Amino acid sequence: MKTSRYSDEELRHAIAQGPITAAYLADPHAVTQELNRLRATELASFLQYQQHAYMAVSLLAPGLKQVFQAQAALAMQHADVLGERIQQLGGCRSFSRGRLPSKRRRSTYSLSTARRWPRWWRRT
What we know:
Blueprint: H1 8-17, H2 28-55, H3 64-88, H4 111-115
């Protein structure tokens, strides 16, 4: 019993074409550049969430460290998916520092900033 509406020859041809088929109208180079930009943003987010997790040692918010670690893991998953798509399009995943977002804020952590966190983050 055949479950596909395509013939075996059509399927072999589609697999041989790879991810960029005749129907793919986007410029693969431009898409790869944008995906690299998005990936760099996700990697920067991962690093920032990890930094927050390292600094989130407080009696006021005992579960905050796990929240930041979960967000960091999610950002890394997003970066991995973007990297896989870049690879599929024949691009090169960029690791250059120039691709990371340039606007970095220096965060300061103290008890006074912890009191300004949203109430659901704090243990009352």
